[in-house]
Amino acid sequence: MNELIKKIREQTGAGVMDIKKALMEAGNDEKKAIEILRKHGQKVAAKKSAERVAKEGLIEAYVHGNGKVASLIMLSCETDFVARNSEFKELAHDLAMQVAAMNPQYLSADKIPAAVLEEEREIIRASLKEEKKPKEVVEKIIDGKLNKFYSEFCLLEQPFIKDDEKTVKEVIAEKIAKLGEKIEVKKIARLSF
Predict the structure, then answer these.
(1) Counting CB atoms within 10 angstroms of each CB, which of 79, 91, 100, 115 has the fewest?
(2) Which CATH architecture best describes the domain 2-50?
(3) Using a CB cutoff of 8 Å and minimum separation of 24, what contacts does 3-12 make?
(4) What is the rounded distance in angstroms from the CA atom of residue 34 to the CA atom of residue 21?
């Protein structure tokens, strides 16, 4: 049991008591316990994000080996202490690599201009006209295709390049839970030839 707790702690950074509770709730199933811890971490992250101000942080640059793609990311946190933390710096670097590799056009779905969203809806709607489906089915299909659009063009909704089982938003939420501070991406930029 102690080996399992140690293994989960190394993977998640969660506290021993939290891991024990998650294992009890999951009936000693490692995968279920990790999922419970992830959900708990997301709740903690949401609470911290709502209550606190992220006024410190750093700007991370990434230039791909061929010198033809570069990105910048402004990642904020609450204290200078966390901004200097190696895990925070690693997160900033990983997110800068994400921006260079995946070329998100927007930070999050709520940052997409209404005109762009409406244009995308119309494109999807036009592609579905010939299928003659009921209106409510068409709307569900549109919602599904918009979610796919978000996962391609919004940084926080994209699958994380180092673990495509998680979104960038989930990775940030895990770091918030682990480091105990609000963390948010303020700005992104990408240049390429």
Answers:
(1) 115
(2) Orthogonal Bundle (1.10)
(3) 4/28, 4/30, 8/33, 8/34, 8/37, 12/37, 12/38, 12/41, 12/174, 12/178
(4) 11
How many residues does the structure list for the chain? 193
Please tell me the pTM assigned to this model. 0.70
pLDDT in tens, the chain (193 residues): 678 887 777 776 677 778 888 888 888 888 888 888 777 766 655 555 566 677 899 999 999 988 999 999 999 999 999 999 999 999 999 999 999 999 999 999 999 999 999 999 888 888 887 777 778 888 888 889 999 999 999 999 999 999 999 999 999 999 988 888 889 999 999 999 9
Its CATH architecture, for the domain 52-107+154-192, is 2-Layer Sandwich (3.30)
